């Protein structure tokens, strides 16, 4: 069973709107085990919409469209599909009543042009829309299906969950449980290093499949197993996961929804250790990532974004002498910041970073992307020198990952209870 | 002159990745006056990529692809296009040297599989990539052009700006000025309030067109004018922009690439005022936004993410009495935090927030989303109570917008020199 996604809307072609619908539907289809080989975006033009849907129906069993169900003149998808299947449009008084009620609840009279939203291709099935005026439509003919959904994501998503998923599950007779995915999250080595270590597995992959996905500062290894039962899928997956974890050790930090910050948080909680952070070049981003984790107030005491030298001196007690002799971007200052914030917060562990995030401020000796990351825990004191590349926000993000990963490695390997 | 966008990558078909590249390129093509009627997404499969590019070339003059230029086995786009045009692949020693230098700068040896990134279709033009190892490619044959770009947005975007836009402008002989866009950025009222205020303009819009785009904590109003000359477009746009600004006053904070933080930064620089921030529930996010702006070290002195009560007492000198009597989430604590961080940093202005970001920690009296935001500047001292809705990150983001907007209004209206 295969499907295609067709997104309609001139606002997508002009780049005014980001197409989040295609991603959402693609993710759901994959979870259902429905194959999807193409996504197409087309403007509000009847001929072109018709060609795209026809072309998609030639390749796939199911076509899912978003957009073009509104009350305006350039909302055309329903009419195009009716035409394609040779079906007349029929007025549905029950839907008309719902649309009128929708406006009434908002204290408004239904505009005349909303009437057309109650017209459906003959013999089609309506998809209820509780948050808007446009019902969706399922049109079946021979072995082919077209599912029409509205464009606004907050209307489309609940309709997909409530009606489309059960419809597809029944249609495909696929037990959604048979497609099992698991994402291993890797921090440290780049995509090509990981590919080299997994080369033979990637070459012979069939079930489970393996996909590598590079993010700004981490790589995701996604395993997807097809099986008749959950137990079987888990067994298939477990063996491969163990092999990959061993080959990538110690760089797999977590799975699925875990983030590097949530893993560090769980380890801090387990070890009953408290953390403080001092940031110069990252300017609060490390603290932001740590505090994105619910419950982080249990272990995170203090973050100081000491941007000015005066703040480094007055808040973190970095020696004016240190700053003058070595500069704000130096291993000495990074270490003094980490010691300072640990003392100030009374934490067990502290990390500090100072560097040049750019785009200005770099010199030959201290170029943009140069970062010193200091780490203090127990009697341990160390400073790491990083040379990072990318724009300002990328350098902030890569620095943050390096710091969180140092914390993770320490908490996993050295602070084992 | 027309173009099509082809995005390749199985991660897009599986919904693992949001396709921001298609939007970015679509927006740029529209700005250049290049028509674009279709966008297609296809997986890492040579046959299907070939069919999609061939189909696109039958409809359009220019096809722009993203993805598939990496070093791995499933990076296929370049090879597919060479095949389609009947061109052999050639090794370019100068590009190989650049790729080797890229790894050398990072203190690493180039993996063997990166070599293939230096292979280009015969007679094609390379697009330099300063932030990654994959050069882009422009392949011309007869009247048709294929432009291949890498998938990572931070590599693709500068390549598009630096090489593709000048290429397209020369190629199309179109004055890019004929399609003129401008985005007004609005903070405060929601999308439907804005729609109501602009209803008549939205109804009769033709040239310029008006599009509303709701973000988490702001709304973008995008105007696009078509005209023969820049002057004519600017005149068309200017009139409508003035009308909209008046209707939405004082909520339009900036235009185009400006962010709320960059506008606040420019105002602080102009007024020669220094800023400090104390954060509890936002945990560093306000400081992160402020320091995303290049040059923010000129006016941002200090951010304190005082997550623990002990940090509020020891770092910001909030009275233990205040915390005990009113609690950490209270107007009294917010104000004490703002006073404390201003004193500590020696800044002119300070803001502080304390609240409950959730999902846990809420009570009937102090529910999730309750935030107190304090603001001190000169003799002015005030605390605002906010009740926000959404998940943890959304509440952090909305709080950050409220604080930055308060700073903007103060700097615009009250701190006028």
Automatic annotation (TrEMBL), chains A, B:
Q: Which InterPro entries match?
A: CinA, CinA-like_C, CinA_C, CinA_KH, Competence-induced_CinA, MoaB/Mog-like_dom_sf, MoaB/Mog_dom
Instruction: Write one Pfam family the protein is assigned to.
Output: CinA
Highest rank taxon of the organism: Bacteria
Boundaries of each MoaB/Mog domain copy? 4-171
SUPFAM superfamilies (alphabetical):
CinA-like, Molybdenum cofactor biosynthesis proteins
**Coiled-coil ranges (or none):** none
Family the entry assigns? Belongs to the CinA family.
* Name of the protein described by the UniProt record: Putative competence-damage inducible protein
